[in-house]
Structure formats: structure tokens, C-alpha cells
Amino acid sequence: MKSHTKKELNKMKTELEKHQEDIASLKRDVRELVKHRERVGGNFSQIEQRLDTTERQLRQKKAKLENLETETETALNDTQRLLSLYKNELSHLNTTASELEDKVEAQFTATKTELEARLKKIQKTSETLSTKLNEQKAEVDEFKGKADGKFRNVDERLNATLKQQKSDTNTLKSDIAGIAHRLKSAEEKVAVQQALKPEVDRLRAEVNAKVAFSASIIESKGVFTGPKTAGTSNILIFNRVFTNVGNAYNSKTGVFTAPLKGVYQFSFMTFGYNSHTSGALLVKNGHYQVFTWEFKGPDASDTTSNTVILKLNVGDCINIILWEGGKIHASVFSGFLVFPTS
């Protein structure tokens, strides 16, 4: 590109010089014509105008040529700078490529050396393994010969053992059938026992159930022993407890509460003086059941008693109350479970 530009520039310089020579030649011709006009007295105004026009055009071309020469010189300078940069970059790339080639060559040489060493090691290992494999193959062949004889003996013994096991298995099957029959009978018995267990538990609880109490009362400021009026409803509270098996009697309220359904026996005794009617009533859930009664008389004191057997449900209540107008000095109240009922 640089050489081509130089050629163009030289060509334009040559043309410029040629034009300058033409101009000089024309000027000489003009002077000659002027002289000739003066001699001949002719009119050369038109020729002068043409010469002036031609000179002006040549000047314009010269100015353009100078501008073109300047621009060409600037382009040449830029081109030279770019070529310099390209040369430097190319030199750097060549250096880098050379270094990379050296590194690759060195790495390739090292890898080749290492692979050759590994290959030799593998070949040596392969030869060793091949030797050991041959030795082991001979040992296996020897062992196989010995094992064949042993296996034949083992097969004979296994066949004999298998026959014995078949016989034992048949015997065992027969025994298992008998055991299964007995197990089924046992399971049926267990099922019956399980069905009867609730009833047995209930009966055992009833058999083991123990309910019995006995308590007394003596006239004192702390308890009610009469006389009973129409406005009083206090029951007799037997506060001195002798026995209370099952804790069914409450010594603070004087009420016995049945803990089990069953048949119970109750008895009570009263002692009083002849100043008041004596005696008492046994009450079940608020209803009169049995009673004792002794009116005022010539005797200094009177004793009454009574016994009753009642069928109670769980929660039924039994207590003792006085007759209206009656009064006692001492009394005993007892009861117990005869037997539970379903």
C-alpha cells in the first residue's frame, strides 16, 4: 500500500512539473504573441482570457495536488505506525508461540518418558502375574483332582443322609399332625376358658367379697339419741365403730351403702328408760322396713331388738331412725353380706 501511494505521488509530481513546464511554455508563447501583436497590431484579448483561465485551473490543480500530497503523507505516517504496531504484536506472538512450543515439547517429552516407564512397569507386573497365574493354575488342577474324590464321598454320604432325613421328615410330619390336633384341642379349651374368664372373675370377686360392720351409740352431747320431734329428721349416728370390713358404713352420716349386689343381714338393738317411748326403725332408701317399739311403762328401762335380711343393689342405703317422741340411751347397729347375687 505504501509503495502504491508513493507511485501515485511521484506520478502527480511529474504531471505537476509537466504542467508547470507547459505554463512556462505558454507564457513564453504569450510573450511572443504579445510581441507579435505589437508588431502586427492584432487583437489577442480572447487568447489572454483563455490563458488566464488555463493558468487559474492549473493553480487549482496544484493546490489540490498539494492537499493530496499532505493527506497522502499523513496516511503514510499512520500506516507506518500501524505497521510498527503490527510488527511488535507479531514479534510478541512469535515469541509466545516459541515459548509454548518449547513448553509443549518439554511436557510431551516428560509424558513420553513417564508413559514408557509405566509401560515397562506394567509389562514387568504382567510377567509376574502370568507366572503366579500359571502356578495357581497348577495348584487348582491339583486341588480339583483331590476335590473330585472327596466330592464323590460327600455325594454318597449326602445321599444316605438325604434318605435318613426323608424318613425323619415323614416321622416328623406324623408327629406334627398329632401336635396340631392336640394344639387345636388346647386352643378350643383356651377359647372356652377365655369366654368363661369374665364370669370366673366375677364369681371370684363375689367369693372374695367381704362386707361386715358393727357400731354402737351412747347418749352424749355429740350425738342425737332423742327425743325426736315432728320437726327433727336426724338419723341415729352410730359413731363408735367396732368393725367396718369393706368400708361400706359411714360413721359420720350413720348410713350403710351397699358396695355389691347381694343378700344382706342387718340387726339393731336399742336401750331406753321408761320416761320416753324407746325403739327404732330400719330404713332402706328412705322407706321403712322393720322396727322395734316399747311404750312407757312401770319398768325402769326397756331393751328392744330386731333382725332382717334384705336384697340390695349396688348403692342402696340403710340407716336407723327414732320413733317420733322416742328417746334411747344406747344402741347397736350391725350388718354383713350373706352372699352376692348376679
What is the CATH architecture term of the domain at 210-340? Sandwich
Rg over CA atoms? 75 Å
**Strand composition percent:** 15-25%
Strand order of the largest sheet: 2-1-10-5-8
* Stretches with pLDDT under 50, minimum 5 residues: none
Distance between the termini: 133 Å
Verbal overview:
By secondary structure, this protein is of the alpha+beta class. Among the domains are: 98 residues; 131 residues, Sandwich (Jelly Rolls), CATH 2.60.120. It is 59% helix and 20% strand. The strands form two sheets. Strands 2-1-10-5-8 form a five-stranded antiparallel β-sheet, with no helix packed on it. The chain has a five-stranded antiparallel β-sheet with strand order 3-4-9-6-7, with no helix packed on it. Helix 1 runs antiparallel to helix 2. The protein is elongated and about 215 Å long. The mean pLDDT is 82.
Q: Which features characterize this protein?
A:
five-stranded antiparallel β-sheet, alpha+beta, 59% helix, elongated, Jelly Rolls, 342 residues
Summarize the structure.
The protein is α+β, with helices and mostly antiparallel strands.
